[in-house]
């Protein structure tokens, strides 16, 4: 196939695959009550379906980025979707909670390496001043999954049983596999060779280390609450299971709006935009805490949370690529992979802390955990801003030390 493929088609194919993968990451949030009932586990144990998945991405993304660094991009994408299908099939057929978690890990490994290379492809196929928007388009697959994939999966689970929810994900994976085969070109450029040493090169750069910590804290701040969103809507706010399916759709619409706005705002000055987004998310979490036991006001707080929840994703992913191009130009793919890991460090920390609070009957106080994470993240953004304001001097010092 020698015909040049439009960047719009490439972004569409990535968004379709991201839709399938995004539906998988958070499907257990919607069917959490069904899983706890089937396997006779506690709500906190059920939260492992989120935290274990995040850990699979966290460790898998950089390791698989190293292993697959010189693999053909098209074949890699196809292989990713095949393993994704296998993982969700195993989860659907799981006779025990442990087997279900193994299926989640397999799917998570696919997720991590997909988001790593898809972010780089999206940024590479457009003009430099459109890179955050291109990443946002790719991530739109995730937000559309929040709008439709997760609610539909929840509806299927509530109506036909949770196993059908995972078979629904298998079907989405098949669609993603087909679109990869049809739409993704064969001649995608390979990144420069890298090695394990590249991880140390990235981590010893203060700016890159700071943005990784900022990613984990800012993205993870939503998850002490989001992991138990269905339970909060049902038990604390008094909404029925059928109403929750509809609410999740509107929540996803808010996420999609926030993601699109976040991509546009981050195109020019990503760090300044990220600071404002973190403050907005903090305000949303404070409102959430004080309305968590209220029927209508609580619902409005959840929609506000959705608006800010994932707004920071395009900016965070773009900024680490920009910093890596500046400080470690040979390790850009690995830096992208580490940031995907950082997103999931945040999910792991957030959902685990939330799980501990739930286990101690502190569900209503989970927003405070997210607020603490954000406060630390804001301090680190301020530190990075100060550091980057003197970047010329820092760069000169680095050159002298080489």
UniProtKB/TrEMBL annotation:
<keyword id="KW-1003">Cell membrane</keyword>
<feature type="transmembrane region" description="Helical">
    <location>
        <begin position="50"/>
        <end position="69"/>
    </location>
</feature>
<keyword id="KW-0813">Transport</keyword>
<keyword id="KW-0812">Transmembrane</keyword>
<dbReference type="InterPro" id="IPR050189">
    <property type="entry name" value="MFS_Efflux_Transporters"/>
</dbReference>
<feature type="transmembrane region" description="Helical">
    <location>
        <begin position="332"/>
        <end position="354"/>
    </location>
</feature>
<dbReference type="InterPro" id="IPR011701">
    <property type="entry name" value="MFS"/>
</dbReference>
<feature type="transmembrane region" description="Helical">
    <location>
        <begin position="105"/>
        <end position="127"/>
    </location>
</feature>
<feature type="transmembrane region" description="Helical">
    <location>
        <begin position="366"/>
        <end position="385"/>
    </location>
</feature>
<feature type="domain" description="Major facilitator superfamily (MFS) profile">
    <location>
        <begin position="10"/>
        <end position="389"/>
    </location>
</feature>
<dbReference type="GO" id="GO:0005886">
    <property type="term" value="C:plasma membrane"/>
</dbReference>
<feature type="transmembrane region" description="Helical">
    <location>
        <begin position="298"/>
        <end position="320"/>
    </location>
</feature>
<keyword id="KW-0472">Membrane</keyword>
<dbReference type="Pfam" id="PF07690">
    <property type="entry name" value="MFS_1"/>
</dbReference>
<keyword id="KW-1133">Transmembrane helix</keyword>
<dbReference type="InterPro" id="IPR036259">
    <property type="entry name" value="MFS_trans_sf"/>
</dbReference>
<feature type="transmembrane region" description="Helical">
    <location>
        <begin position="162"/>
        <end position="186"/>
    </location>
</feature>
<feature type="transmembrane region" description="Helical">
    <location>
        <begin position="273"/>
        <end position="292"/>
    </location>
</feature>
<feature type="transmembrane region" description="Helical">
    <location>
        <begin position="76"/>
        <end position="99"/>
    </location>
</feature>
<feature type="transmembrane region" description="Helical">
    <location>
        <begin position="207"/>
        <end position="229"/>
    </location>
</feature>
<protein>
    <submittedName>
        <fullName>MFS family transporter</fullName>
    </submittedName>
</protein>
<dbReference type="GO" id="GO:0022857">
    <property type="term" value="F:transmembrane transporter activity"/>
</dbReference>
<feature type="transmembrane region" description="Helical">
    <location>
        <begin position="241"/>
        <end position="261"/>
    </location>
</feature>
<dbReference type="InterPro" id="IPR020846">
    <property type="entry name" value="MFS_dom"/>
</dbReference>
<feature type="transmembrane region" description="Helical">
    <location>
        <begin position="134"/>
        <end position="156"/>
    </location>
</feature>
